[in-house]
Amino acid sequence: MSDNPNPVKPTMPTVPSGNAVVPLDAILCTEELSRRPHRPPDYETENRALAALVQALADSPQTILQTLADTLLEVFKADSAGISLLTGDEKNFYWAAIAGDWKPHLGGGTPRNFGPCGDVLDCNAPLLFKHWERRYSYLLQATPLAEEGLLVPFHVRGKAVGTIWTIAHTQQRKFDAEDLRHLESLGRFASAAYQTVQLQNAEEARRIALDLMEEAVRSRKAVEELNDTLRESEERYRTLFELGPVAVYSCDAAGAILNYNRQAADLWGREPAAGEHFSGARRLFHPDGSPMPHDQCPTARVLNGSEARISECMIERPDGSRLTVVAEVRKLKDRRGDVAGAISCFYDITERKRDELRQQLLIDELNHRVKNTLATVQSIAAHTLTAASDAESRRKFDERLIALARAHDLVAQRGWEGASLRELLLQELEPYGAGSREPFVLAGPDVDLRPKAALALGLAFHELATNAAKHGALSAPGGSIRVDWERVNGSKVSALRLKWAETGGPAITVTPKKSFGLTVIERGLSLELDGTVTIAFDPEGLTGIIEFPLPTAGEANVC
Amino acid sequence: MVALLAERMLAELGCRVIGPAARLDKALELAERHAFDLAILDININGKKVYPVAAALAARGIPFVFTTGYGKARVCDRYRDRPTVQKPYRVEDLRTAIAAAYGRGGR
Known about the structure:
heterodimer, A: alpha+beta, 6-stranded antiparallel sheet, disordered N terminus, B: alpha/beta, 15% strand
């Protein structure tokens, strides 16, 4: 009721002081109503208007007072009409609804103790005013001025709460007894409408309260549901936490252990006391056996800012036994991104380490024995070929034996699983400068050889290099050897094709007789590898082409 | 047989050979009591590691060369910088290793 766009408002004027006030009687002419000729009652129109008002009250109680003002204006053919309501503190009336010329004054009002509405309540009777601004000068601002104003009080449970009124701004319209009767009738409606509005407000307040309550219930429900979800989630993670086989514990940012699962306690061999930091283990060691202080364990390192990583360490249990574990630690961060703690997962790899060690020892032992056997064979040869004329044969024999031992080393390094072709070439040709000097170009993809192929090829490369050093590319300055290889994918198996090509050695004019070593390569190697070996003497130097099948993926590396 | 070959090679290089010792205690006794210029130590001596002998020699300042069938990586950290030859080896390999043993501060 305060959205009046017009600033002209005789709002809540104060009572003037002094005694030059026009007396109330001077502005009243109520008794004239009965003397004036009056029109006959028009009940039909009156009923129609009332019916429309009741409908409006039902449809839109919020605006019923304004609808009533509009109706007053229309049925009374007045210039202005409205409803004034007593404020809660009963000090003022405010104009709750206005229609007609005074509409701009909506929201304005008059003091309870010095104004027409107050007079009506004081008399507890309808009053007809004439130029009330003569007494109530503040109404001079309420333009256009009122020629006549007819006011009727209305009551709720016997208490006057407001007035309804019609105003004529000109002398054309004179209110009469019929107007009074009709206005009194509508006054009763105003009372009902007022109560409905009050009720409506109460209802609205109740509805708002209900809405708020519902909202509160809804949010409490939402919180409960969230809690349920959290509980379920917590339950899920707790189960994950407890389920084996991984040991898990968590700690806060300072490293104090918060919780741990059964597996962790099993591996530690103890239950850490409250307030223990970084690890529940009694003592920790590095994989090499040196002591690892708790504040340098993987969890402590991660909390101190190291990148999360997987690391091995040894746990010593109270009974003195030691376990090797692999630990993976992750930082936990809070909402602000600060480190809030860490989670460490670890599992026992003692058995695996033991197996690995055992296997390594076996391989070492095998290697040691094979090498010792080769050395024994070497010794036998040395003690057999004792004549001075045997010296050259002994030297060749030793070198072949050593070439075989080198190939063997390479295979042993990889646990007898195979050897890299490039590494084999580098190793066998190293005495002739491969890897450090010019004469060799080695070009080809990474190829893993089975142990059997590696041993056979090791000997063959030794033989070829020895031959090159004696007769071929390596016997002359500027000579070089190029070794190219590639995988050749056949329909069923893939194969390796390797070419040994010498250039820059002494020119070959007459095809020389193949040495014993080369013959052995051609025949022996092709049998060993189940492949083909071709050695040819081109004018620029010796070429050897070796082709043999490679093991397919998944095929066991049978020696 | 292997020791005999080493003996033969050392003779070829002009050395006079004391030993060989086939057992660790015998080797230790030689290392602690006898006068000689250089020792050839097989890492594995009748199933035992030869390192106590190496320690005794090092204490006396006598140079030594390891021979092994295990591969260079298996020599223990403390002696990893000592000359080591892989079995089987040539007399030239032994000569190079002996020279290296003298070169690293021995006599």
